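SAMPLE LOG
Freezer: B-3
Tube label: C17
Construct: single chain, 120 aa
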Amino acid sequence: MVSRSSDLIMKLWIAICFLVLLGATYIVDPNDEHSLIFLFVPMIILSFPAGFIVPYIIGGMAYLLLLAGIENPFSPGGGWNVWFYFMHTVYWLMFVVIGYLQWFIFFPRLKRKVKLFMRY
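STRUCTURE (predicted):
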């Protein structure tokens, strides 16, 4: 059962995540791979501590692509690069899923179990 306050917090958290996506998409430059920092830093903060897993997942995917002989799947070519913005959104979605699972599924269950354990 979800209380009203936790439902409000969940909706607020999701809204902030969407604002980060919109803001980072506006700021990001496909020709500068460092501009992804405007997505990564706020999303790591919003999904802390589990959000630290996402860069490792992305690094692992990049390593597998390098092993397959694909050096740069983004191939920045200026303007609106669909593949770059698609991956930008996938990275954001990875942060959101991990953060949502952590904050609104795993931690509430853990809290209930600790309360149940403390009663005995």
